[in-house]
C-alpha cells in the first residue's frame, strides 16, 4: 500500500488499513503479514504491527516484514 506524499499524514492510510484488518478479522483471519518499506515502519508499528526480519531490497528500496495477529 502506498499513499501519495501530498496526502500522507491525513489518516487515509490508517483508515484503509484499519478497514482491511477489521474485514480480515471478521472472516476468521488470525494473522496478517506484509513487506513494508523501512521508512514506513513507524506507521505500521503505530497500528500494532511487529517489525522483524532482515532488511531486503525490492525495486531498489529497503524493506522489512511486518506481522499482526488480528483474530
Write up what this structure looks like:
This protein has 71 residues and is of the alpha+beta class. The chain has a domain at 30-71. The protein has helices at 12-26, 41-46, and strands spanning 31-37, 50-58, 61-69. Strand 2 (50-58) and strand 3 form a beta hairpin. The radius of gyration is 13 Å and the shape is globular.
The backbone outline, from C-alpha atoms, is globular
Task: Give the low-confidence spans.
Answer: none
Q: What is the structural class?
A: alpha+beta
Report mean pLDDT, rounded to a whole number: 93
Give the strand content: 35-45%
Rg from C-alpha positions? 13 Å
Major sheet characteristics: 3 strands, antiparallel
- Elements, N to C (H/E): HEHEE
Helix proportion? 25-40%
> Helix count, per DSSP?
2
The beta-strand count equals: 3
* C-alpha termini separation: 22 Å
Give me the side-by-side strand order of the main sheet.
1-3-2
Topology readout:
Layout: H1 12-26, E1 31-37, H2 41-46, E2 50-58, E3 61-69
Antiparallel strand pairs: 1-3, 2-3
